[in-house]
Amino acid sequence: MSLKCGIVGLPNVGKSTLFNCISSGKAQSANFPFCTIDPNVGSTNVPDKRLEVLTQICQPKRTIPATVEIVDIAGLVKGASKGEGLGNQFLANIRECDAILHVLRCFDDGNIVHVDGSVDPVRDKEVVETELQIKDLETVENRIKKVEKMATTGGDKEAKKLLNLLQRYREVLLQGKSCREVVPENAEEEQMAKDLYLLTNKPVMYVCNVDEASAAGGNAYVDAVRAAVGEDNILVIAAKTEAEIAEIEEYEDRQMFLEEMGLEESGVVRLIQSAYRLLGLRTFFTAGADECRAWTIVAGDKAPRAAGVIHTDFERGFIRAEVIKYDDFVQYRTEAAVRAAGKMGIEGKDYVVQDGDIMHFLFNV
Question: pTM (2 decimals)?
Answer without folding.
Answer: 0.89
